[in-house]
Amino acid sequence: MTDTILKLDGVVKEFAGFRAVGGPEGLSFGVRRGGFLGLIGPNGAGKSTTFNLISGVMPPTRGSVTLDGAEISQLSTAGTAALGLGRTFQTPRAFGSLSIIDNVMVGLAHPEEGPLAAMLGRWKPAERQFLGRAEAALERVGLAGRRHDSVSNLSGGELRMLEVARQLVREPRILLLDEPTAGVDPALQGKLSEILAGLHAAGTTLIVVEHNLGFLMSLADSVVVLQNGALLAEGTPDDIRRDPAVIAAYLGADHEA
Amino acid sequence: MIQSLILSTLMFGAMFSVLTVSLNLQYARGGMINFGTVAYFAAGAYAYAIFTQEPPSGLDQYAFGFDMPWWAGFLAAGAAAMLFALITGWPTLRLRGEYLALTTFAFAEVFHSILLNERRIGNGSVGMANVERPDPAAIGLGDTLGYTLAACALMLLTAWLFHRLLASPYGRLVDATRDDEIAAESVGKDTARVRLQIFVISAIPIGFAGALYAMITTLVAPALFSAEVTFFVWIALALGGERTILGAILGTMALVFFQELVRVIPFETVRGAQIAASAEEVITGILFILVLRWQPWDRLSRKAGS
Ligand SMILES: Nc1ncnc2c1ncn2[C@@H]1O[C@H](COP(=O)(O)OP(=O)(O)OP(=O)(O)O)[C@@H](O)[C@H]1O
Ligand SMILES: [Mg+2]
To answer: Using CA atoms, how far apart are residues A13 and B238, in angstroms rounded to an integer?
Structure first.
Protein backbone atom coordinates (compact mmCIF):
# COMPACT_ATOMS: atom_id res chain seq x y z
CA MET A 1 0.00 0.00 0.00
CA THR A 2 1.31 3.42 -0.86
CA ASP A 3 1.28 6.14 1.75
CA THR A 4 -1.07 8.88 0.53
CA ILE A 5 -0.60 12.33 2.03
CA LEU A 6 -3.25 14.25 0.07
CA LYS A 7 -6.46 12.84 -1.25
CA LEU A 8 -9.25 14.39 -3.34
CA ASP A 9 -12.52 12.48 -3.36
CA GLY A 10 -15.41 13.41 -5.63
CA VAL A 11 -14.42 17.07 -5.65
CA VAL A 12 -16.66 19.43 -7.63
CA LYS A 13 -16.37 23.20 -8.04
CA GLU A 14 -19.07 25.14 -9.83
CA PHE A 15 -19.05 28.84 -10.65
CA ALA A 16 -22.61 30.05 -11.22
CA GLY A 17 -23.63 26.64 -12.53
CA PHE A 18 -20.50 26.18 -14.67
CA ARG A 19 -18.56 23.13 -13.51
CA ALA A 20 -14.91 24.18 -13.58
CA VAL A 21 -13.68 21.15 -11.68
CA GLY A 22 -15.20 17.69 -11.23
CA GLY A 23 -16.57 16.58 -14.59
CA PRO A 24 -19.50 14.16 -14.49
CA GLU A 25 -18.52 12.25 -11.34
CA GLY A 26 -16.25 14.54 -9.36
CA LEU A 27 -12.47 14.70 -9.32
CA SER A 28 -10.60 12.07 -7.31
CA PHE A 29 -6.89 11.40 -7.08
CA GLY A 30 -4.25 10.86 -4.42
CA VAL A 31 -0.75 12.17 -3.92
CA ARG A 32 1.96 9.91 -2.52
CA ARG A 33 3.89 11.16 0.52
CA GLY A 34 7.22 12.43 -0.70
CA GLY A 35 5.98 12.14 -4.28
CA PHE A 36 6.41 14.64 -7.12
CA LEU A 37 3.13 14.98 -8.96
CA GLY A 38 2.82 16.86 -12.23
CA LEU A 39 -0.64 18.32 -12.85
CA ILE A 40 -1.16 19.09 -16.52
CA GLY A 41 -3.94 19.81 -18.97
CA PRO A 42 -5.13 22.36 -21.54
CA ASN A 43 -5.91 25.99 -20.65
CA GLY A 44 -9.06 26.16 -18.58
CA ALA A 45 -8.86 22.49 -17.55
CA GLY A 46 -9.23 23.46 -13.89
CA LYS A 47 -5.65 23.09 -12.64
CA SER A 48 -5.43 26.41 -10.82
CA THR A 49 -8.94 25.96 -9.46
CA THR A 50 -7.91 22.56 -8.11
CA PHE A 51 -5.00 24.28 -6.31
CA ASN A 52 -7.44 26.83 -4.90
CA LEU A 53 -9.66 24.04 -3.58
CA ILE A 54 -6.76 22.19 -1.97
CA SER A 55 -5.24 25.28 -0.37
CA GLY A 56 -8.51 26.71 0.95
CA VAL A 57 -8.62 29.81 -1.25
CA MET A 58 -12.17 28.64 -2.02
CA PRO A 59 -14.24 25.69 -0.76
CA PRO A 60 -15.39 22.98 -3.15
CA THR A 61 -19.07 22.84 -4.06
CA ARG A 62 -18.90 19.25 -2.82
CA GLY A 63 -16.48 16.46 -2.26
CA SER A 64 -13.69 16.06 0.23
CA VAL A 65 -10.03 16.95 0.41
CA THR A 66 -8.00 15.25 3.11
CA LEU A 67 -4.46 15.93 4.27
CA ASP A 68 -3.05 13.06 6.32
CA GLY A 69 -6.61 11.82 6.74
CA ALA A 70 -7.94 15.12 8.11
CA GLU A 71 -10.64 16.94 6.15
CA ILE A 72 -9.26 20.30 4.96
CA SER A 73 -11.76 21.36 2.31
CA GLN A 74 -13.51 23.80 4.66
CA LEU A 75 -10.32 25.32 6.07
CA SER A 76 -9.13 28.81 5.17
CA THR A 77 -5.91 29.37 3.26
CA ALA A 78 -4.21 30.24 6.53
CA GLY A 79 -5.64 27.06 7.99
CA THR A 80 -4.15 24.80 5.33
CA ALA A 81 -0.88 26.71 5.51
CA ALA A 82 -0.76 26.09 9.24
CA LEU A 83 -0.96 22.34 8.52
CA GLY A 84 2.22 22.59 6.48
CA LEU A 85 0.82 23.24 3.02
CA GLY A 86 2.52 25.84 0.86
CA ARG A 87 1.57 27.21 -2.54
CA THR A 88 2.45 29.78 -5.16
CA PHE A 89 0.05 31.47 -7.57
CA GLN A 90 -0.17 31.49 -11.33
CA THR A 91 0.00 35.28 -11.18
CA PRO A 92 2.81 35.87 -8.69
CA ARG A 93 1.79 37.68 -5.53
CA ALA A 94 4.11 40.04 -3.69
CA PHE A 95 3.85 42.58 -0.87
CA GLY A 96 4.43 45.77 -2.82
CA SER A 97 5.33 48.03 0.09
CA LEU A 98 7.90 45.65 1.56
CA SER A 99 11.51 45.15 0.51
CA ILE A 100 12.48 41.86 -1.09
CA ILE A 101 14.03 40.46 2.07
CA ASP A 102 10.92 41.46 4.07
CA ASN A 103 8.74 39.73 1.47
CA VAL A 104 10.54 36.53 2.40
CA MET A 105 10.58 37.28 6.14
CA VAL A 106 6.77 37.38 6.10
CA GLY A 107 6.91 33.70 5.22
CA LEU A 108 8.45 32.82 8.57
CA ALA A 109 6.34 32.01 11.58
CA HIS A 110 8.06 34.58 13.78
CA PRO A 111 7.52 33.58 17.41
CA GLU A 112 7.29 37.22 18.53
CA GLU A 113 5.03 38.54 15.81
CA GLY A 114 2.24 39.91 18.01
CA PRO A 115 1.47 43.54 18.86
CA LEU A 116 2.58 43.23 22.46
CA ALA A 117 5.96 41.78 21.54
CA ALA A 118 6.33 44.64 19.07
CA MET A 119 5.72 47.34 21.67
CA LEU A 120 7.97 45.65 24.21
CA GLY A 121 10.71 45.14 21.59
CA ARG A 122 10.91 41.45 22.41
CA TRP A 123 11.23 40.45 18.75
CA LYS A 124 14.82 41.49 18.16
CA PRO A 125 16.79 38.36 19.12
CA ALA A 126 14.66 36.00 17.02
CA GLU A 127 14.70 38.46 14.12
CA ARG A 128 18.46 38.14 13.64
CA GLN A 129 18.28 34.39 13.34
CA PHE A 130 15.31 34.58 10.98
CA LEU A 131 17.09 37.12 8.81
CA GLY A 132 19.76 34.52 8.17
CA ARG A 133 17.18 31.99 7.04
CA ALA A 134 15.50 34.49 4.71
CA GLU A 135 18.84 35.44 3.19
CA ALA A 136 19.66 31.80 2.60
CA ALA A 137 16.33 31.35 0.79
CA LEU A 138 17.02 34.37 -1.41
CA GLU A 139 20.45 32.95 -2.16
CA ARG A 140 18.84 29.71 -3.32
CA VAL A 141 16.54 31.44 -5.80
CA GLY A 142 19.26 33.77 -7.04
CA LEU A 143 17.93 37.00 -5.55
CA ALA A 144 20.49 37.50 -2.78
CA GLY A 145 21.93 40.60 -4.41
CA ARG A 146 18.53 42.26 -4.56
CA ARG A 147 17.52 41.87 -0.94
CA HIS A 148 16.98 45.58 -0.20
CA ASP A 149 15.48 46.34 -3.58
CA SER A 150 11.83 47.21 -4.03
CA VAL A 151 9.47 44.56 -5.36
CA SER A 152 8.38 46.88 -8.19
CA ASN A 153 11.87 46.55 -9.69
CA LEU A 154 11.56 42.79 -10.14
CA SER A 155 10.73 41.16 -13.46
CA GLY A 156 7.89 38.67 -13.77
CA GLY A 157 10.24 35.71 -13.54
CA GLU A 158 12.01 37.18 -10.52
CA LEU A 159 8.67 37.75 -8.79
CA ARG A 160 7.94 34.07 -9.25
CA MET A 161 11.25 33.14 -7.66
CA LEU A 162 10.55 35.54 -4.80
CA GLU A 163 7.27 33.73 -4.16
CA VAL A 164 9.11 30.42 -4.16
CA ALA A 165 11.61 31.81 -1.64
CA ARG A 166 8.76 32.96 0.62
CA GLN A 167 7.44 29.40 0.67
CA LEU A 168 10.88 27.80 0.97
CA VAL A 169 11.67 29.50 4.29
CA ARG A 170 8.53 27.95 5.76
CA GLU A 171 9.74 24.44 4.91
CA PRO A 172 6.24 23.19 3.98
CA ARG A 173 5.54 19.45 4.04
CA ILE A 174 3.66 19.72 0.78
CA LEU A 175 4.28 22.44 -1.78
CA LEU A 176 2.02 23.39 -4.70
CA LEU A 177 3.57 25.43 -7.53
CA ASP A 178 1.38 26.94 -10.25
CA GLU A 179 3.36 27.30 -13.50
CA PRO A 180 6.69 28.07 -11.80
CA THR A 181 8.67 28.36 -15.05
CA ALA A 182 6.32 30.75 -16.88
CA GLY A 183 8.34 33.82 -17.78
CA VAL A 184 11.47 32.46 -16.09
CA ASP A 185 14.65 32.44 -18.19
CA PRO A 186 16.55 29.17 -18.86
CA ALA A 187 19.28 29.89 -16.30
CA LEU A 188 16.76 30.48 -13.53
CA GLN A 189 14.76 27.46 -14.70
CA GLY A 190 17.87 25.38 -14.12
CA LYS A 191 18.13 26.81 -10.62
CA LEU A 192 14.46 26.07 -10.00
CA SER A 193 14.89 22.52 -11.25
CA GLU A 194 17.76 22.04 -8.78
CA ILE A 195 15.67 23.46 -5.94
CA LEU A 196 12.74 21.17 -6.70
CA ALA A 197 14.96 18.10 -7.03
CA GLY A 198 16.55 19.05 -3.68
CA LEU A 199 13.14 19.39 -1.99
CA HIS A 200 12.04 16.09 -3.50
CA ALA A 201 15.17 14.35 -2.25
CA ALA A 202 14.58 15.83 1.21
CA GLY A 203 11.09 14.29 1.32
CA THR A 204 8.87 17.29 0.56
CA THR A 205 5.73 16.34 -1.36
CA LEU A 206 5.43 18.43 -4.53
CA ILE A 207 2.54 19.15 -6.87
CA VAL A 208 3.49 21.23 -9.87
CA VAL A 209 1.20 22.66 -12.56
CA GLU A 210 3.23 23.29 -15.67
CA HIS A 211 2.84 23.71 -19.44
CA ASN A 212 6.59 23.34 -19.85
CA LEU A 213 6.55 19.54 -20.13
CA GLY A 214 10.26 19.18 -20.78
CA PHE A 215 10.87 20.73 -17.40
CA LEU A 216 8.11 18.86 -15.59
CA MET A 217 8.46 15.36 -17.03
CA SER A 218 12.12 15.16 -16.05
CA LEU A 219 11.26 15.87 -12.42
CA ALA A 220 7.84 14.34 -11.75
CA ASP A 221 7.39 10.73 -10.72
CA SER A 222 3.69 10.71 -11.52
CA VAL A 223 1.35 12.82 -13.61
CA VAL A 224 -2.35 13.69 -13.49
CA VAL A 225 -3.96 15.06 -16.65
CA LEU A 226 -7.10 17.18 -16.39
CA GLN A 227 -9.48 18.06 -19.17
CA ASN A 228 -12.65 20.09 -18.69
CA GLY A 229 -12.28 19.67 -14.94
CA ALA A 230 -12.20 15.86 -15.11
CA LEU A 231 -9.39 13.36 -14.76
CA LEU A 232 -8.29 12.32 -18.24
CA ALA A 233 -5.32 10.16 -17.31
CA GLU A 234 -3.06 9.30 -14.42
CA GLY A 235 0.28 7.52 -14.43
CA THR A 236 4.04 7.78 -14.74
CA PRO A 237 5.47 10.38 -17.13
CA ASP A 238 6.24 7.61 -19.63
CA ASP A 239 2.67 6.25 -19.51
CA ILE A 240 1.27 9.73 -20.01
CA ARG A 241 3.53 10.51 -22.98
CA ARG A 242 2.21 7.40 -24.75
CA ASP A 243 -1.45 7.73 -23.74
CA PRO A 244 -3.49 8.22 -26.95
CA ALA A 245 -6.22 10.19 -25.18
CA VAL A 246 -3.66 12.61 -23.70
CA ILE A 247 -1.93 13.00 -27.04
CA ALA A 248 -5.22 13.80 -28.70
CA ALA A 249 -6.43 16.23 -26.06
CA TYR A 250 -3.30 17.99 -24.94
CA LEU A 251 0.07 16.92 -26.31
CA GLY A 252 -0.91 17.11 -29.97
CA ALA A 253 -0.58 14.51 -32.71
CA ASP A 254 2.96 15.53 -33.64
CA HIS A 255 4.18 15.04 -30.09
CA GLU A 256 7.39 13.03 -29.85
CA ALA A 257 6.64 10.09 -27.62
CA MET B 1 -2.78 86.77 22.95
CA ILE B 2 -0.05 85.12 20.88
CA GLN B 3 0.79 82.95 23.85
CA SER B 4 -2.78 81.81 24.36
CA LEU B 5 -3.07 81.13 20.63
CA ILE B 6 0.00 78.92 20.75
CA LEU B 7 -1.15 77.14 23.89
CA SER B 8 -4.65 76.40 22.63
CA THR B 9 -3.29 75.27 19.26
CA LEU B 10 -0.93 72.91 21.03
CA MET B 11 -3.61 71.68 23.41
CA PHE B 12 -6.30 70.92 20.83
CA GLY B 13 -3.74 70.12 18.15
CA ALA B 14 -2.07 67.47 20.30
CA MET B 15 -5.40 66.07 21.41
CA PHE B 16 -6.77 65.76 17.88
CA SER B 17 -3.37 64.46 16.74
CA VAL B 18 -4.04 61.41 18.87
CA LEU B 19 -7.03 60.82 16.59
CA THR B 20 -5.16 61.43 13.33
CA VAL B 21 -2.20 59.31 14.41
CA SER B 22 -4.62 56.48 15.18
CA LEU B 23 -6.41 56.95 11.86
CA ASN B 24 -3.02 56.93 10.18
CA LEU B 25 -2.41 53.49 11.68
CA GLN B 26 -5.85 52.20 10.65
CA TYR B 27 -5.87 53.67 7.18
CA ALA B 28 -2.32 54.14 5.89
CA ARG B 29 -0.97 50.95 7.43
CA GLY B 30 -4.04 48.81 8.06
CA GLY B 31 -5.82 49.80 4.86
CA MET B 32 -9.12 50.31 6.69
CA ILE B 33 -11.28 53.40 6.17
CA ASN B 34 -13.00 54.31 9.42
CA PHE B 35 -15.55 57.08 8.95
CA GLY B 36 -16.92 56.60 12.44
CA THR B 37 -13.91 57.99 14.30
CA VAL B 38 -16.01 60.29 16.44
CA ALA B 39 -17.86 57.35 18.01
CA TYR B 40 -14.73 55.97 19.68
CA PHE B 41 -13.86 59.50 20.82
CA ALA B 42 -17.37 59.92 22.26
CA ALA B 43 -17.26 56.49 23.89
CA GLY B 44 -14.11 57.57 25.73
CA ALA B 45 -15.52 60.93 26.77
CA TYR B 46 -18.81 59.48 28.02
CA ALA B 47 -17.09 56.62 29.82
CA TYR B 48 -14.87 59.14 31.58
CA ALA B 49 -17.83 61.30 32.58
CA ILE B 50 -19.93 58.38 33.78
CA PHE B 51 -17.11 56.92 35.85
CA THR B 52 -16.18 60.19 37.52
CA GLN B 53 -19.61 61.83 37.87
CA GLU B 54 -21.42 61.73 41.20
CA PRO B 55 -24.50 59.49 41.35
CA PRO B 56 -27.56 61.16 39.82
CA SER B 57 -29.63 63.51 41.96
CA GLY B 58 -32.32 66.18 41.49
CA LEU B 59 -33.02 66.82 37.83
CA ASP B 60 -30.35 64.41 36.56
CA GLN B 61 -31.67 61.86 34.15
CA TYR B 62 -28.53 59.79 33.77
CA ALA B 63 -28.65 56.40 35.45
CA PHE B 64 -25.03 55.87 36.44
CA GLY B 65 -22.42 58.02 38.09
CA PHE B 66 -19.68 56.08 39.82
CA ASP B 67 -17.90 58.99 41.51
CA MET B 68 -14.51 57.44 40.90
CA PRO B 69 -11.15 59.24 40.71
CA TRP B 70 -10.08 60.76 37.40
CA TRP B 71 -7.51 58.08 36.61
CA ALA B 72 -10.14 55.35 36.90
CA GLY B 73 -12.31 57.31 34.48
CA PHE B 74 -9.35 57.74 32.16
CA LEU B 75 -8.68 54.00 32.08
CA ALA B 76 -12.39 53.33 31.59
CA ALA B 77 -12.31 55.65 28.55
CA GLY B 78 -9.62 53.56 26.86
CA ALA B 79 -11.46 50.37 27.73
CA ALA B 80 -14.77 51.72 26.42
CA ALA B 81 -13.27 52.72 23.08
CA MET B 82 -11.58 49.34 22.84
CA LEU B 83 -14.81 47.52 23.59
CA PHE B 84 -16.72 49.61 21.09
CA ALA B 85 -14.07 48.86 18.45
CA LEU B 86 -14.38 45.15 19.15
CA ILE B 87 -18.15 45.27 18.84
CA THR B 88 -18.15 47.34 15.65
CA GLY B 89 -15.04 45.77 14.13
CA TRP B 90 -15.99 42.13 14.51
CA PRO B 91 -18.94 42.17 12.07
CA THR B 92 -17.66 44.84 9.68
CA LEU B 93 -13.98 44.20 9.02
CA ARG B 94 -14.81 41.65 6.37
CA LEU B 95 -15.98 44.63 4.34
CA ARG B 96 -13.59 46.48 2.11
CA GLY B 97 -12.93 50.07 1.15
CA GLU B 98 -15.97 52.24 0.82
CA TYR B 99 -18.27 49.60 2.33
CA LEU B 100 -16.32 49.69 5.56
CA ALA B 101 -16.35 53.49 5.44
CA LEU B 102 -20.14 53.55 5.10
CA THR B 103 -20.71 50.98 7.82
CA THR B 104 -18.47 52.66 10.37
CA PHE B 105 -20.14 55.97 9.55
CA ALA B 106 -23.54 54.39 10.14
CA PHE B 107 -22.38 52.91 13.44
CA ALA B 108 -21.24 56.33 14.60
CA GLU B 109 -24.55 57.93 13.60
CA VAL B 110 -26.48 55.26 15.49
CA PHE B 111 -24.28 55.78 18.53
CA HIS B 112 -24.81 59.54 18.32
CA SER B 113 -28.54 59.04 18.11
CA ILE B 114 -28.50 56.75 21.15
CA LEU B 115 -26.57 59.32 23.17
CA LEU B 116 -29.10 61.92 22.13
CA ASN B 117 -32.25 59.90 22.81
CA GLU B 118 -31.36 57.56 25.64
CA ARG B 119 -31.24 60.03 28.50
CA ARG B 120 -30.17 57.43 31.04
CA ILE B 121 -26.68 57.35 29.50
CA GLY B 122 -25.77 61.00 29.72
CA ASN B 123 -28.82 63.25 30.12
CA GLY B 124 -29.66 63.18 26.40
CA SER B 125 -29.08 66.38 24.48
CA VAL B 126 -28.27 68.33 27.65
CA GLY B 127 -25.23 66.18 28.31
CA MET B 128 -23.29 66.01 31.54
CA ALA B 129 -21.80 69.27 32.75
CA ASN B 130 -19.18 70.02 35.39
CA VAL B 131 -17.24 66.92 34.56
CA GLU B 132 -14.70 66.12 37.28
CA ARG B 133 -11.08 66.65 36.45
CA PRO B 134 -7.68 66.74 38.10
CA ASP B 135 -6.48 70.24 38.95
CA PRO B 136 -3.11 71.04 37.37
CA ALA B 137 -2.51 73.49 40.21
CA ALA B 138 -1.72 70.46 42.35
CA ILE B 139 1.59 70.21 40.51
CA GLY B 140 1.98 73.98 40.23
CA LEU B 141 0.72 74.44 36.68
CA GLY B 142 -1.90 76.71 35.24
CA ASP B 143 -5.04 75.14 33.83
CA THR B 144 -4.31 75.59 30.14
CA LEU B 145 -0.63 74.79 30.47
CA GLY B 146 -1.38 71.66 32.48
CA TYR B 147 -3.83 70.27 29.93
CA THR B 148 -1.61 71.30 27.04
CA LEU B 149 1.19 69.26 28.55
CA ALA B 150 -1.15 66.35 29.18
CA ALA B 151 -2.36 66.42 25.57
CA CYS B 152 1.20 66.59 24.25
CA ALA B 153 2.20 63.68 26.50
CA LEU B 154 -0.70 61.56 25.26
CA MET B 155 0.12 62.42 21.66
CA LEU B 156 3.83 61.63 22.02
CA LEU B 157 3.15 58.39 23.87
CA THR B 158 0.67 57.29 21.20
CA ALA B 159 3.04 58.19 18.37
CA TRP B 160 5.94 56.44 20.10
CA LEU B 161 4.01 53.26 20.81
CA PHE B 162 2.59 53.09 17.29
CA HIS B 163 6.05 53.67 15.88
CA ARG B 164 7.37 50.76 17.95
CA LEU B 165 4.39 48.67 16.96
CA LEU B 166 5.11 49.13 13.26
CA ALA B 167 8.90 48.94 13.29
CA SER B 168 8.76 45.22 14.05
CA PRO B 169 7.77 41.87 12.57
CA TYR B 170 4.22 42.79 13.50
CA GLY B 171 4.46 45.95 11.40
CA ARG B 172 5.69 43.84 8.52
CA LEU B 173 2.71 41.56 8.97
CA VAL B 174 0.35 44.55 8.99
CA ASP B 175 1.85 45.84 5.73
CA ALA B 176 1.69 42.39 4.16
CA THR B 177 -1.96 42.01 5.17
CA ARG B 178 -2.82 45.33 3.55
CA ASP B 179 -0.79 44.64 0.39
CA ASP B 180 -2.11 41.17 -0.39
CA GLU B 181 -4.31 39.26 2.01
CA ILE B 182 -4.33 36.02 0.04
CA ALA B 183 -0.54 35.94 -0.20
CA ALA B 184 -0.31 36.58 3.55
CA GLU B 185 -2.83 33.81 4.18
CA SER B 186 -0.83 31.46 1.98
CA VAL B 187 2.04 31.65 4.45
CA GLY B 188 -0.27 30.96 7.37
CA LYS B 189 -1.11 34.47 8.56
CA ASP B 190 -4.51 35.06 10.10
CA THR B 191 -5.26 38.31 8.31
CA ALA B 192 -8.72 38.76 9.80
CA ARG B 193 -7.14 38.79 13.24
CA VAL B 194 -4.49 41.30 12.19
CA ARG B 195 -7.12 43.66 10.83
CA LEU B 196 -9.22 43.43 13.99
CA GLN B 197 -6.16 43.95 16.19
CA ILE B 198 -5.16 47.10 14.32
CA PHE B 199 -8.73 48.38 14.43
CA VAL B 200 -8.96 47.83 18.18
CA ILE B 201 -5.44 48.97 19.09
CA SER B 202 -5.89 52.25 17.27
CA ALA B 203 -9.23 52.90 18.97
CA ILE B 204 -7.74 52.85 22.48
CA PRO B 205 -5.83 56.16 22.27
CA ILE B 206 -8.89 57.73 20.65
CA GLY B 207 -10.81 56.81 23.80
CA PHE B 208 -8.09 58.34 25.99
CA ALA B 209 -8.26 61.49 23.89
CA GLY B 210 -12.02 61.53 24.47
CA ALA B 211 -11.43 61.50 28.23
CA LEU B 212 -8.96 64.35 27.89
CA TYR B 213 -11.47 66.29 25.81
CA ALA B 214 -14.10 65.81 28.53
CA MET B 215 -11.61 67.13 31.10
CA ILE B 216 -10.74 70.15 28.98
CA THR B 217 -14.29 71.16 28.15
CA THR B 218 -15.78 69.77 31.44
CA LEU B 219 -18.82 68.90 29.35
CA VAL B 220 -19.93 65.88 27.40
CA ALA B 221 -22.94 66.36 25.13
CA PRO B 222 -23.99 64.81 21.81
CA ALA B 223 -23.51 68.14 20.02
CA LEU B 224 -19.78 67.94 20.69
CA PHE B 225 -19.54 64.54 19.03
CA SER B 226 -21.10 64.95 15.62
CA ALA B 227 -19.75 63.62 12.34
CA GLU B 228 -17.95 66.96 11.96
CA VAL B 229 -15.24 65.64 14.28
CA THR B 230 -14.69 62.68 11.93
CA PHE B 231 -14.48 64.94 8.90
CA PHE B 232 -12.15 67.28 10.75
CA VAL B 233 -9.60 64.55 11.53
CA TRP B 234 -9.80 63.12 8.02
CA ILE B 235 -9.11 66.55 6.54
CA ALA B 236 -6.21 66.99 8.97
CA LEU B 237 -4.84 63.61 7.94
CA ALA B 238 -5.09 64.48 4.26
CA LEU B 239 -3.44 67.85 4.88
CA GLY B 240 -0.47 66.25 6.59
CA GLY B 241 -0.10 63.45 4.11
CA GLU B 242 -1.49 60.20 5.43
CA ARG B 243 1.74 58.29 5.14
CA THR B 244 3.72 59.20 8.23
CA ILE B 245 3.01 59.74 11.89
CA LEU B 246 4.80 63.10 11.77
CA GLY B 247 2.71 64.18 8.79
CA ALA B 248 -0.48 63.32 10.65
CA ILE B 249 0.61 65.46 13.60
CA LEU B 250 1.73 68.42 11.46
CA GLY B 251 -1.47 68.37 9.43
CA THR B 252 -3.58 68.41 12.57
CA MET B 253 -1.55 71.19 14.19
CA ALA B 254 -1.86 73.30 11.02
CA LEU B 255 -5.62 72.84 10.79
CA VAL B 256 -6.19 73.53 14.49
CA PHE B 257 -3.92 76.59 14.32
CA PHE B 258 -5.94 77.94 11.45
CA GLN B 259 -9.21 77.49 13.36
CA GLU B 260 -7.86 78.96 16.56
CA LEU B 261 -6.51 81.93 14.59
CA VAL B 262 -9.97 82.77 13.33
CA ARG B 263 -11.28 82.37 16.87
CA VAL B 264 -8.93 84.94 18.45
CA ILE B 265 -9.65 87.70 15.95
CA PRO B 266 -11.53 90.34 17.98
CA PHE B 267 -14.68 91.01 15.99
CA GLU B 268 -16.58 94.25 16.38
CA THR B 269 -19.91 92.77 15.37
CA VAL B 270 -21.68 89.44 15.54
CA ARG B 271 -22.02 89.62 11.77
CA GLY B 272 -18.27 89.88 11.37
CA ALA B 273 -17.76 86.80 13.52
CA GLN B 274 -20.33 84.86 11.52
CA ILE B 275 -18.67 85.76 8.25
CA ALA B 276 -15.28 84.74 9.63
CA ALA B 277 -16.66 81.41 10.83
CA SER B 278 -18.16 80.66 7.41
CA ALA B 279 -15.00 81.78 5.66
CA GLU B 280 -13.03 79.42 7.87
CA GLU B 281 -15.13 76.47 6.77
CA VAL B 282 -14.95 77.44 3.13
CA ILE B 283 -11.19 77.84 3.28
CA THR B 284 -10.82 74.49 5.08
CA GLY B 285 -12.83 72.87 2.31
CA ILE B 286 -10.79 74.52 -0.43
CA LEU B 287 -7.55 73.48 1.25
CA PHE B 288 -8.83 69.92 1.40
CA ILE B 289 -9.73 69.90 -2.28
CA LEU B 290 -6.39 71.42 -3.26
CA VAL B 291 -4.43 68.85 -1.28
CA LEU B 292 -6.42 65.98 -2.76
CA ARG B 293 -6.09 67.39 -6.27
CA TRP B 294 -2.38 68.15 -6.24
CA GLN B 295 -1.16 65.60 -3.69
CA PRO B 296 1.86 67.69 -2.71
CA TRP B 297 3.13 65.10 -0.22
CA ASP B 298 3.28 62.39 -2.83
CA ARG B 299 5.18 64.70 -5.13
CA LEU B 300 7.61 65.67 -2.38
CA SER B 301 8.28 62.09 -1.36
CA ARG B 302 8.75 61.07 -4.97
CA LYS B 303 11.23 63.91 -5.39
CA ALA B 304 13.03 62.88 -2.23
CA GLY B 305 13.06 59.29 -3.46
CA SER B 306 14.56 59.93 -6.87
N1 LIG C 1 -13.28 32.60 -9.72
C2 LIG C 1 -13.82 32.10 -10.86
N3 LIG C 1 -15.05 32.47 -11.25
C4 LIG C 1 -15.59 31.98 -12.39
N5 LIG C 1 -14.98 31.11 -13.20
C6 LIG C 1 -13.75 30.70 -12.86
C7 LIG C 1 -13.10 31.18 -11.67
N8 LIG C 1 -11.87 30.61 -11.59
C9 LIG C 1 -11.77 29.81 -12.67
N10 LIG C 1 -12.89 29.85 -13.44
C11 LIG C 1 -13.12 29.11 -14.66
O12 LIG C 1 -12.82 27.77 -14.40
C13 LIG C 1 -12.17 27.17 -15.50
C14 LIG C 1 -10.86 26.56 -15.07
O15 LIG C 1 -9.97 27.62 -14.75
P16 LIG C 1 -8.51 27.37 -14.17
O17 LIG C 1 -7.91 28.67 -13.92
O18 LIG C 1 -8.57 26.42 -13.06
O19 LIG C 1 -7.80 26.68 -15.41
P20 LIG C 1 -6.30 26.21 -15.58
O21 LIG C 1 -6.32 24.77 -15.85
O22 LIG C 1 -5.48 26.69 -14.46
O23 LIG C 1 -5.91 26.96 -16.93
P24 LIG C 1 -4.53 27.69 -17.37
O25 LIG C 1 -3.66 26.61 -17.91
O26 LIG C 1 -4.96 28.62 -18.46
O27 LIG C 1 -3.99 28.37 -16.18
C28 LIG C 1 -12.01 28.25 -16.54
O29 LIG C 1 -13.03 28.10 -17.51
C30 LIG C 1 -12.19 29.53 -15.77
O31 LIG C 1 -12.75 30.53 -16.57
MG1 LIG D 1 -4.03 28.00 -14.24
So the answer is: 45
